[in-house]
Amino acid sequence: MPKTLADIKKSLDCHLGKRLHLRANGGRKKTLESAGVLRETYRAIFVVDLEQEDDTCKRVSYSYTDILTEAVEITFLDETKAAIAK
């Protein structure tokens, strides 16, 4: 995993529009796990559209610091399928 915030942003910029699995610390021993799509990256945050069961879309944003401190973990689904195929 990248070591600086700039490296994290660059690596996420390469995956815009791709499906991902998101695991985030929800506080008080709660963990949010969901699938979604990386929509946008900004200077300090990135935006993910989470998939909902009733065909609605919930939009969440996190900072690059969340990834650096491991409060948020992202796994891109396209890469895992490619790794399994090899």
Automatic annotation (TrEMBL):
<dbReference type="Pfam" id="PF06257">
    <property type="entry name" value="VEG"/>
</dbReference>
<protein>
    <submittedName>
        <fullName>Protein Veg</fullName>
    </submittedName>
</protein>
<dbReference type="InterPro" id="IPR009366">
    <property type="entry name" value="Protein_Veg"/>
</dbReference>
